[in-house]
Specification:
It is a single chain. The protein is an alpha+beta fold and 148 residues long. The protein has a single domain (2-134), classed as Gcn5-related N-acetyltransferase (GNAT) (Aminopeptidase), CATH 3.40.630. It is built from four helices and five strands. It has helices at 11-18, 34-46, 97-111, 126-134, and strands spanning 2-5, 50-56, 62-74, 78-88, 116-119. It is globular and about 45 Å long. The relative contact order is 0.16.
């Protein structure tokens, strides 16, 4: 497995990999717009405050993707790095891909002065929650969201 930043020519593979998040127990978000996703991906690939990390197999096939961004300067905690997407090919889960991507996201944030890394995960994603618990988070919380 190789970990590397995504490049613009990886866009189709990254968009396809994000589909792994929509499979049960997940679902396609009502507000998901493929064109907006592609534009956001292009921005993240070129941004100084974001990174799209890819895990690839020896043949170059994408086996995982993680998007991480510096997004908030918390008064209480300092600069936050936020993982928005962490998706691993279902055939490659429990092989170290997710852990390698999460570790890379943590390192990326630390290198840029972040004090902590956070993510949220849907209540139905119990397998993902077991994975995150194995990574020994310093805290857990529950998030809430509203469509604007």
């Amino acid at each position: 497995m190789e970990l590397r930043p995504a490049r613009h020519e990886d866009a189709d593979a990254v968009i396809a990999a994000l589909e792994w998040l929509f499979a049960p127990p997940g679902a396609r978000p009502a507000l998901y717009d493929p064109a907006r996703a592609r534009a956001a991906l292009a921005h993240a690939i070129g941004a100084d405050d974001a990174e799209v990390l890819l895990a690839t197999d020896a043949d170059g096939t994408v086996s995982g993707v993680c998007t991480v961004a510096l997004d908030l300067r918390s008064i209480r905690f300092g600069l936050r790095a936020w993982v928005e997407d962490l998706a691993v090919d279902p055939a490659r889960r429990s092989t170290g891909v997710g852990r390698a991507l999460l570790d890379a996201a943590r390192a990326w944030g630390r290198e840029r002065g972040a004090t902590h890394l956070e993510l949220d995960s849907g209540d139905s994603r119990t397998d993902a929650h077991r994975f995150y618990e194995r990574q020994r988070p310093d805290w857990t919380s529950r998030s809430f969201g509203w469509v604007l």
